[in-house]
Specification:
The chain has about 325 residues and is α/β, with parallel strands linked by helices. The protein has 11 helices and 12 strands.
């Protein structure tokens, strides 16, 4: 009987591993860890056949060299910015993600933050909790219908936001160099970012985190926004230059922001973004719902099972690895 494969789980944020165990049952031994950096899991992963990964990283070429048997790194989430994809391809390691498990949740959360900013929901809640019952402290407020939403990136989640925003009567613009005008049925007019920002009452961030998008919302971007505009970020914290955001808020270059993701995470306490009446901060929870959790937990182990049984996985990020992977696929 062939020996079972070894699958190392670098870290996880759920209570039970029943899904992983059931998916890999009879095929692989699961070694669950709770680590943050490769140096904390590499000893266990040195002889692994597959790596399941949530947040621990960054996983570099040097780390991959220390896992000579590893055939696949399967991420539970959507982003793969913590994995050196070029190095993985060179090493013959397949990298997968889970691109669809929380599209609706993040789109809904984006709208929730947008509405909370527009209607000052969190501000008024704090006001009432503090014993004050009054409308004037929240002024000015503006009608959502007829206002303009600018989407930075027009991928799966952003397009779902566009549909929801249009239902509220908002005008939708988007900036995405990889999307052509009219390519998708969802509402939205394509514009260059620099031309779009001055028109927006709300700017919502949705690109993947890459070297090109890191800190793309910077001093220059904030200087182009309306002084009443709100920034919404449910993508990746480092897409926004945090120091520039603080400067924009201090100088009243924008009206405020709603952040589900920050740079760094968790946001230190104290921090200049904390404690502001025009800033809403959530702890990177936009992805979560009970339904999304099921999809999240099943995705990565399913990809590992496919590779270990000789199948090409569904959601491969580094497609160039095909034909030269360690798995022989």
């Amino acid at each position: 009987m062939a020996a079972k494969a070894k699958v190392v789980l670098t870290d996880y944020v759920w209570e039970s591993l029943d899904v992983e165990k059931k998916t890999l049952e009879g095929l692989a031994e699961l070694v669950p860890l709770q680590t943050k950096k490769p140096e904390e899991f590499i000893a266990q992963a040195a002889d692994c056949d597959a790596l399941l990964n949530t947040y621990a990283g960054p996983i570099t070429a040097d780390d991959m060299a220390k896992m000579p048997k590893c055939k696949i790194i399967a991420r539970y989430g959507i982003g793969v910015d913590t994995i050196d994809l070029e190095a993985a391809t060179k090493a013959g390691i397949i990298v997968t993600n889970n691109p669809s498990y929380c599209i609706e949740e993040v789109a809904e959360h984006t709208m929730a933050l947008l509405l909370a900013c527009a209607r000052k929901v969190a501000f008024y809640d704090r006001l009432v909790r503090g014993g004050q019952w009054a409308v004037p402290p929240g002024k000015p407020m503006f009608r959502l219908a007829g206002s303009t939403l600018g989407l930075v990136g027009f991928g799966n989640i952003a397009r779902e936001v566009a549909v929801r925003a249009a239902a509220f009567g908002m005008r939708v613009l988007y900036s995405d160099p990889f999307v052509k005008e009219g390519q998708f049925k969802e509402p939205g007019k394509k514009m260059e970012l620099a031309a779009m920002l001055p028109e927006c009452d709300f700017v919502s961030i949705h690109p993947p985190l890459t070297p090109q998008t890191r800190k793309m919302i910077n001093d220059d971007a904030f200087s182009k926004m309306k002084p009443t505009a709100f920034l919404i970020n449910c993508s990746r914290g480092p897409v926004v230059d945090t120091d520039a955001l603080v400067r924009a808020l201090d100088s009243k270059k924008i009206g405020g922001c709603g952040l589900d993701t920050t740079d760094p995470e968790p946001l230190p306490d104290p921090h200049p973004l904390r404690g502001r009446d025009n800033v809403i901060i959530n702890p990177h929870c936009a992805w979560y719902s009970e339904a999304a959790m099921k999809g999240l937990q099943a995705g990565a182990p399913g990809e590992v099972r496919r590779v270990l049984t000789g199948e090409w996985p569904v959601n491969v990020v580094n497609k160039a690895v095909k034909g030269k992977s360690r798995a022989g696929l």
